[in-house]
């Protein structure tokens, strides 16, 4: 497992900075493992969510829903108590902005001895990243509570398509606390990770840090003679193929030998478009300062990982098959670090004995490879039919995961979640739908700790990208 410490770079773990939080998962959904259907068209959470203050302490979600059900479809309700625990807050997310406006008419109404206040939840969302990978929703909430700020919702991103995403949107109960919590937590060291905390602001949205890779306009250059890799030299050679936006060189080339034990240098060069990057491939296997250079289009690691997991799952004759185990069902928000922690706590198997962890989202589980088959057997005995996050989990071999009831091509949407209608509008499910909704194609990701040949992402980490 990844034991690297120190201040971690932000952009490796976040697809985008201050992106819309419409694609993230709420704290309650994380706890109960609710499955939410995601599509490209986002529900506009920012204008359809209200905060209710001064509800009676005895009010649960059912009672709160009765108060606001005539305002429109409710997608989600979360509650919290102030530090003195004298009343209850509620965060209610509606299907549409008009529903939220209707809910504002409930303000100043009395329930028992409590006169409630209803406001639109705005300017009360904090974006936090670079917390330890093992952090859970409760860990994030505790960071806020320790500094006198009440978090009412923590929304984490789904790891279904990218297992490196590590950030959260936290809704608090008072806009005046935003600056306070930023001052308290930003740059704070937590388990050797420096937190990054900002006010969520859609106007400050930044482009995805891996956009050049996705758009195939970034090339990877490698050569055995590391001393020959110089930015000016590279720019002079590669600029004839197009406009170069950026060149990133290895910062410590001498420490990274190739498979033959030779030191090598490498660089990432970003062009303004993919056609220019393709033209630059002409330099593949050309000679620079008496050394051959290798030029390829940078690959997105997730694609390579999916191919690897497909080979593992579909292979009829796996080598070292007894070293693999599977754990299922797991929500697609569970991280590799949390799985490693689960195994260690339940089995006392040392972390270094885990060779790889694959997050297999389309099977609602994970695959773990150990360095010894006896650990696999021990893990199955300890974890099978155990409880994790208040859910029963199974632990088996890979075939057990393939045959699991949680993996079906046709999945029905469960109560309490949302779905898209025929017009691609987000709807709340208050009763079972008459039809089942096909499951989106999902992606698979992995974590590797073997001594295999390094890929583009490994080099990227060395560059601090």
Please tell me about this protein's structure.
The chain folds into 3 domains: 21-204, Alpha-Beta Plaits (2-Layer Sandwich); 211-298, RRM (RNA recognition motif) domain (Alpha-Beta Plaits, 2-Layer Sandwich); 303-448, Alpha-Beta Plaits (2-Layer Sandwich). The chain has a 6-stranded antiparallel beta sheet with strand order 22-23-19-21-20-28. Strands 1-9-10-8-13 form a 5-stranded antiparallel beta sheet. Strands 15-16-14-18-17 form a 5-stranded antiparallel beta sheet, with helices on both faces. With 465 residues, it is an alpha+beta fold. Strand 17 (287-288) and strand 18 form a beta hairpin. Residues 1-20, 25-42, 251-259, 409-420 and 429-452 have low confidence and may be disordered. It is globular, with a radius of gyration of 25 Å. It is built from 13 helices and 28 strands.
Q: Features of this protein?
A:
single chain, 3 domains, six-stranded antiparallel beta sheet, alpha+beta, Alpha-Beta Plaits, 23% helix, 13 helices, five-stranded antiparallel beta sheet
């Amino acid at each position: 497992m990844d034991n690297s410490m120190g201040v971690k770079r932000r952009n490796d773990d976040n697809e985008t900075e201050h992106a819309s939080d419409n694609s993230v998962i709420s704290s309650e959904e994380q706890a109960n493992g609710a499955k939410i259907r995601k599509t490209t068209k986002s529900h506009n959470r920012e204008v359809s969510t209200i905060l209710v203050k001064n509800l009676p302490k005895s009010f649960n979600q059912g009672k709160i829903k009765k108060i606001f059900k005539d305002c429109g479809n409710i997608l989600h309700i979360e509650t919290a108590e102030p530090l003195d625990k004298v009343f209850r807050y509620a965060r209610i997310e509606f299907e549409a902005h008009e529903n939220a406006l209707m809910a504002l008419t409930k303000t100043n109404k009395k329930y028992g001895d409590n006169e409630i206040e209803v406001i639109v939840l705005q300017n009360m969302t904090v974006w936090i990243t670079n917390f330890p990978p093992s952090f859970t929703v409760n860990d994030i909430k505790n960071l806020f509570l320790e500094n006198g700020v009440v978090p009412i919702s923590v929304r984490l991103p789904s790891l279904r398509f990218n297992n490196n995403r590590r950030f959260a949107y936290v809704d608090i109960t008072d806009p005046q606390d935003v600056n306070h919590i930023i001052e308290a937590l930003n740059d704070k060291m937590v388990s050797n990770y420096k937190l990054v905390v900002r006010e969520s602001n859609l106007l400050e949205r930044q482009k995805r840090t891996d956009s050049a890779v996705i758009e195939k306009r970034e090339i990877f250059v490698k050569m055995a003679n590391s001393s020959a890799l110089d930015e000016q030299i590279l720019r002079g050679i590669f600029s004839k193929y197009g406009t170069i936006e950026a060149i990133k060189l290895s910062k410590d080339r001498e420490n990274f030998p190739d498979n033959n034990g030779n030191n090598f240098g490498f660089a990432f060069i970003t062009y303004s478009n993919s056609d220019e990057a393709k033209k630059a491939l002409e330099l593949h296997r050309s000679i620079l300062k008496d050394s051959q250079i290798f030029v390829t289009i940078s690959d997105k690691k997730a694609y390579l990982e999916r191919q690897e997991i497909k080979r593992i799952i579909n292979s009829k004759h796996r080598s070292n098959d007894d070293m693999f185990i599977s754990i299922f069902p797991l929500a697609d928000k569970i991280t590799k670090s949390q799985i490693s922690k689960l195994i260690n706590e339940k089995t006392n198997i040392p972390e270094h004995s885990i060779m790889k962890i694959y997050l297999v989202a389309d099977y609602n589980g994970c695959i773990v490879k150990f360095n010894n088959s006896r650990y696999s057997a021990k893990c199955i005995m300890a974890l099978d039919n155990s409880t994790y996050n208040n859910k029963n989990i199974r632990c088996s071999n890979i075939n057990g995961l393939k045959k699991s009831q949680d993996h079906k091509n046709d999945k029905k949407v469960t109560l309490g979640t949302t779905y898209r209608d025929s017009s691609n509008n987000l709807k709340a499910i208050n009763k079972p739908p008459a039809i089942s909704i096909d499951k989106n194609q999902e992606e698979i990701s992995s974590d590797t700790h073997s001594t295999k040949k390094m890929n583009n992402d490994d080099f990227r980490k060395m560059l601090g990208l």
